[in-house]
Design a protein that fits this description.
By secondary structure, the protein is mostly helical. It folds into two domains: 29 residues, no CATH class; 107 residues. 70% of the residues lie in helices and 0% in strands. The chain contains six helices and no strands. The model has no long low-confidence stretch (mean pLDDT 76).
């Protein structure tokens, strides 16, 4: 019984390893931009399942338009983050390195009240950011409706990754 299980186990191991070597996928074309050394390494290791050559793809005009819109969104997010950091900087000055509030820090905070003009300026900045977000989202929805059918799945995934990268800044 042990011999049968051992033979079956060895058969499964060797047949599983052999499937990677017997791959019938066509050989991908190497990019002309690769150095000769890198080309030879990739050619010799191309039988491994985790080594795949990526051929450079040309971006469609639809993807380029959407990436330009995402550039506008990134500028809005950068302005938003800069505004938030400006507000947080004042709070960080009050706290010491351990994160606990100093008793003198709380007194300074009470003494340093913002003037009405500063609050009005902050409200205007917030309203401006909100208006920019709203106009961008309307333009984004229109643009995606217009060019959505012209995009491939790969381009949609790339745009989603870019959008996630920008959103992580918030």
């Amino acid at each position: 019984m042990k011999k049968i299980l051992l033979i079956l186990y060895l058969f499964l191991i060797f047949s599983g390893c052999g499937t990677f070597l017997k791959s019938t996928d066509p050989a991908p074309e190497l990019s002309p931009k690769l150095s000769p050394v890198k080309k030879s390494i990739l050619e010799k290791l191309s039988f491994l399942p985790f080594i795949k050559l990526k051929t450079p793809t040309e971006s469609s005009p639809a993807k380029i338009e959407l990436l330009q819109k995402l550039g506008e969104y990134e500028r809005i997010v950068d302005d938003h983050v800069a505004f938030d950091n400006k507000d947080k900087k004042g709070e960080d000055d009050i706290q010491d390195s351990t994160g606990k509030e100093n008793s003198t820090g709380s007194l300074k905070k009470k003494e340093e009240k913002e003037t009405i003009e500063e609050k009005i300026a902050e409200i205007k900045i917030i309203r401006g950011l909100t208006a920019r977000y709203e106009t961008w989202s309307l333009q984004w929805n229109e643009k995606t409706d217009l060019v959505g059918n012209d995009l491939s799945l790969i381009e949609i995934n790339e745009i989603q990754k870019e959008l996630k990268r920008i959103s992580k800044k918030l």
